[in-house]
């Protein structure tokens, strides 16, 4: 019953993929086992030959990890899924698994820092050329495609400026050129955006973010057609071993049960926080895909079901102003993580994006005064009061030391 296609996402999040043992446990079982015992030598032979679909070894799969994969696949509407140790393991496998020396990939310039390292630094070391484009400019995507382009990669909304790229249009361009489209859907979450429905071939998540949502463990997942997984990632993952631990799969399964309500509440709060920020003195710009003043508001409404749980904003006074703002916050923590129940703020120019040159950062719209806020599950009035404190400090001269907890 849990695999029925007619079930709504909230039901799938709670029940999807459950493998119940003969004990009939209510909560998903945590199978802390590396291996499996076969009844006979013949049974072992059949399992290795693939005649019997049972489990062999936890580097390949484990019942708790498989429950997480099945639940994610049902939620995303994907034929298949593979869990990985982290979001970056998922990105690396999805990209490396498709290419060989002599191939070419196209990616948006605005990528999560480590994703940009994969396409800009790592792939070229193995003879795979990469072209980076301004993701909002469809002509640049068209011009970048070459006969040997194998895959196209983007994230939307982007980190940290929350730009929105047209997934359906880029899918069409990629497919016309014989390439696949891979989407990093971390910022949108499976609740707010369905890239496979928009034409993408593969979706990856850092499950570390909203899917856990409570700051406990790392994880990643690759979702695609069975053919894509079999051709590109199945063997790579099995033989190289960036496997998700069963314990983390169990934590993430429990995270999925509440993903829908958390993302709905955090998105509603982010919308209110964005509106409140826009009214604060010293806040010179607010970027939130759910606000009509967002440059790609119409596109965001078309391809997303909400404005996301993140808000980016700029504070007058550059880096000093942004630091005074962050240091004055008492409820919101300073952290580079996101999607957590706890609201978190980061200064991208000096943390997540400090590896990029100032010129590249400016090209991406990451100014010295920009802060990125991940809105959590606290009472939104407390968050708005905290942001008022930040704004007052930002415009108030000397940097305040952050009060010890
Ligand atoms: C965090 C993140 C990743 C990497 O995930 P890890 O779980 O930290 O390895 C990739 N893409 C985006 C957009 C992210 O936010």
Q: With helices defined by DSSP (H or I, 4 residues minimum), what is the helix count?
A: 14
Poorly predicted ranges: none
Structural class label: alpha/beta
Main pleated sheet: 7 strands, mixed
Distance between the termini: 48 Å
CATH class category of the largest domain = Alpha Beta
Q: Identify the overall geometry.
A: globular
- Helices and strands, in N-to-C order? HHHEHEHEHEHEHEEHHEHEHEEHEH
Helix content: 25-40%
Radius of gyration: 22 Å
Quick check: average pLDDT? 95
Q: Catalogue the ligands.
A: pyridoxal-5'-phosphate
Please provide the count of β strands. Answer: 12
Q: How many structural domains in the coordinates?
A: 2
Query: How is the CATH topology of the largest domain named?
Result: Aspartate Aminotransferase, domain 2
> Roughly what fraction of the amino acids lie in strands?
5-15%
CATH homology-level superfamily of the largest domain: Type I PLP-dependent aspartate aminotransferase-like (Major domain)
Oligomer: single chain
Q: Mind telling me which CATH architecture of the largest domain this is?
A: 3-Layer(aba) Sandwich
Side by side, the strands of the main sheet go: 1-7-6-5-4-2-3
What does this entry look like structurally?
With 405 residues, the protein is an alpha/beta fold. It has helices at residues 9-15, 41-49, 63-76, 87-96, 113-125, 138-144, 167-176, 189-192, 226-240, 246-279, 297-303, 318-327, 358-363, 380-394, and strands at 80-84, 104-108, 129-133, 149-155, 180-184, 202-206, 220-224, 283-287, 310-315, 333-334, 344-346, 370-374. The strands form two sheets. Strands 1-7-6-5-4-2-3 form a seven-stranded mixed sheet, with helices on both faces. Helix 3 (63-76) runs parallel beside helix 10 (246-279). It is globular, with a radius of gyration of 22 Å. The mean pLDDT is 95. Bound molecules: pyridoxal-5'-phosphate (PLP). Pyridoxal-5'-phosphate is lined by residues 86-88, 91, 112, 114-115, 155, 159, 184, 186-187, 206, 208-209, 218, 220.
């Amino acid at each position: 019953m849990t695999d029925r296609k007619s079930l709504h996402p909230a039901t799938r999040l709670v029940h999807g993929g459950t493998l119940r043992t003969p004990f009939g446990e209510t909560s998903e079982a945590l199978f802390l086992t590396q291996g499996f015992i076969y009844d006979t030598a013949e049974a072992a032979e059949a399992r290795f030959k693939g005649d019997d679909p049972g489990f062999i070894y936890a580097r390949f799969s484990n019942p708790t990890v498989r429950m997480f994969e099945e639940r994610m696949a049902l939620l995303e509407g994907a034929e298949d899924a593979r869990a990985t140790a982290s979001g970056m393991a998922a990105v690396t496998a999805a990209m490396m698994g498709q290419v060989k020396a002599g191939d070419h990939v196209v990616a948006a310039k605005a990528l999560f820092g480590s994703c940009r390292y994969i396409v800009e630094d790592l792939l070229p070391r193995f003879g795979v050329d990469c072209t980076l484009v301004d993701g909002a400019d469809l002509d640049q995507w068209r011009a970048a495609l070459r006969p040997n382009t194998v895959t196209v990669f983007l994230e939307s909304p982007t980190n940290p400026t929350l730009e929105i790229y047209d997934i359906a249009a880029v899918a069409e361009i990629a497919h016309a050129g014989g390439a696949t489209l891979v989407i990093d859907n971390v910022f949108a979450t499976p609740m707010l955006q369905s890239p496979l429905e928009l034409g993408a071939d593969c979706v990856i998540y850092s499950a570390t973010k909203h899917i856990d949502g409570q700051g406990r463990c790392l994880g990643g997942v690759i979702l695609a057609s069975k053919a894509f997984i079999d051709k590109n990632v199945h063997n790579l993952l099995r033989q190289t071993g960036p496997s998700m631990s069963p314990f983390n799969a169990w934590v993430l399964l429990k995270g999925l049960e509440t993903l829908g309500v958390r993302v709905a509440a955090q998105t509603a709060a982010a919308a209110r926080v964005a509106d409140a920020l826009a009214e604060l003195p010293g806040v010179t710009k607010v970027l939130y895909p759910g606000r009509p003043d967002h440059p790609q508001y119409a596109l965001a409404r078309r391809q997303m079901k909400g404005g996301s749980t993140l808000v980016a904003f700029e504070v007058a006074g550059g880096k000093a102003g942004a630091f005074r703002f962050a240091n004055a916050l008492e409820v919101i923590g300073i952290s580079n993580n996101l999607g957590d129940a706890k609201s978190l703020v980061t200064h991208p120019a000096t943390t997540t994006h400090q590896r990029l040159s100032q010129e590249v950062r400016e090209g991406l719209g990451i100014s010295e005064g920009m802060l990125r806020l991940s809105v959590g599950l606290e009472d939104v009035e407390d968050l708005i009061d905290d942001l008022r404190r930040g704004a007052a400090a930002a415009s108030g001269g000397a940097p305040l030391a952050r009060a010890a907890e």
